[in-house]
Fold:
Amino acid sequence: KRGFNAKFNWQLGDHRVTLGAEHYSINIDSATLTTQGGDWTYYTAPGTVLPNGTAVPGNGQYVAQYFLQNGGNFETVNKGAYLEDYWQAADRWVVYLGTRFDVYTNKNVNGANFMRLPLLSPRIGLAWDMHGDSSTKLGVNFGKYGLSVPTSVNQGAASAVYAWHRWYTYTGRD
Structure:
């Protein structure tokens, strides 16, 4: 994960205002592959017709070969900006108002965007300092929060895949 986070704070009377922005890039390298010759599975199922149209001989013996290679380098870019105001409304009361705008972008194996999720998240909160010494606070808040789609999802949803199946009949093993 690489990126930056910048924020600016202002104290304006009873208000502490924060303006901030973030930009993060998350990269993974991922690969899934079978052995060079693929995976082999042996079956005995008389009367079977294989997906390639071949009827299995009377002894029902056939083998399935499967090969898979997929993966690559995947990136997710998370950008966000926010504005928040903590207002000391009274001696023991703080009111919080804020909004955040995020754009989560997932990229395929070629670096092109395949998923882009913009999200606007308003938030409001209230806190009461019960004893006036910050030892016990009671708070309530309401807001919308979001998380990006994990970068690992990119492999399953947008990777380059090379795969094939082959079927063979046989009469015995050596």
About this structure: The beta strands are 2-12, 15-33, 39-44, 61-90, 93-107, 113-129, 137-143, 160-169. The chain has a mean pLDDT of 92. The first helix runs from residue 152 to 158.
